[in-house]
């Protein structure tokens, strides 16, 4: 009878820097500076890989537990986009291991005390559309290499404290000198408390007297913060040419086409043109009378 000593081990690196190791072997393994725990509530199915440019894919499934994979962390989005590596390893000699998959976690779903996560290989990036989009608004991401806006400038971010929480609406205090709607389309990051590290996209931002603000997020945080928790607000951009010029002084790097014709004009080329001023009638001399009519009625 042939006995195999092959096992699988995988490591997950979350966006907040936490690294967790798992293995389907019945004892702990250690290599690459990571300790891989057995029966820790996670296992990976077979990885589907190809030699070409097809997207590699698999799934990770497991049970939710306080020791390794906490449901609150999944709700808070701390597992979204986490980097994942999968090895085949000789459990009798862990130094003999081979990396067979590297990618990231995709959609994470949960039901009945268990979770299921899609594994996306490195070739997943090939599914993204590339190329220039011709649109009146800017196609760059605020602060990236195309935008080049300096987001470290004073006034483009601010620190505040939470006064009240009601779902996706937060009332903040301690933030003075920012115009109404200054942070719309920006980011709110929770920097203390149980929800520390969670970020949300700002839908509405309203300045109130005495440094108070009412901020609506597009979705409520997975873990609701508490009054007194600290937050950081980062400026937003509506991608318009006027805001690029007036708010950021960055019009030289604007990546839109503000003078494109309107879409209605493009879709209806047969539409009537704007009415022009009508020409004034010109003077026409009277026609000569027919022969025999001259002097008629005299």
TrEMBL record:
Name its species: Paracoccus isoporae
Under NCBIfam families, the record lists: phg_TIGR02218
Q: What is this protein called?
A: Bacteriophage phiJL001 Gp84 C-terminal domain-containing protein
Domain Bacteriophage phiJL001 Gp84 C-terminal: from-to ranges: 181-264
Note down the stretches annotated as region Disordered.
265-298
């Amino acid at each position: 009878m042939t006995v195999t000593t092959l096992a699988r081990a995988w490591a997950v690196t979350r966006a907040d820097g936490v690294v967790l190791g798992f293995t389907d072997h019945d004892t702990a393994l250690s290599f690459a500076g990571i300790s891989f725990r057995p029966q820790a509530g996670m296992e990976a199915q077979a990885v589907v890989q190809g030699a070409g440019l097809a997207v590699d894919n698999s799934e990770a499934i497991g049970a939710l537990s306080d020791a390794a994979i906490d449901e609150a962390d999944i709700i808070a989005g701390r597992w979204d986009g986490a980097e994942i590596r999968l090895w085949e390893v000789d459990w009798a000699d862990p130094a003999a291991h081979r990396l067979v998959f590297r990618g990231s976690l995709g959609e994470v779903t949960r039901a009945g005390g268990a979770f299921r996560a899609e594994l996306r290989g490195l070739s997943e990036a090939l599914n993204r559309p590339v190329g220039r989009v011709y649109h009146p608004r800017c196609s760059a991401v605020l602060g990236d290499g195309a935008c080049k806006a300096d987001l470290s400038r004073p006034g483009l971010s601010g620190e505040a404290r939470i006064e009240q929480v009601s779902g996706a609406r937060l009332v903040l205090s301690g933030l003075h000198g920012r115009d109404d709607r200054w942070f719309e389309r920006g980011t709110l990051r929770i920097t203390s408390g149980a929800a520390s590290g969670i970020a949300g996209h700002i839908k509405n931002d309203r300045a109130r007297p005495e440094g108070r603000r009412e901020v609506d997020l597009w979705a409520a945080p997975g873990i609701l913060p508490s009054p007194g928790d600290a937050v950081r607000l980062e400026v937003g951009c509506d991608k318009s040419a006027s805001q690029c010029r007036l708010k950021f002084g960055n019009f030289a790097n604007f990546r839109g086409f503000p003078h494109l014709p309107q879409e209605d004009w493009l879709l209806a080329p047969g539409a009537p043109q704007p009415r022009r001023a009508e020409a004034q009638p010109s003077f026409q001399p009277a026609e000569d009378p027919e022969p025999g009519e001259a002097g008629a009625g005299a």
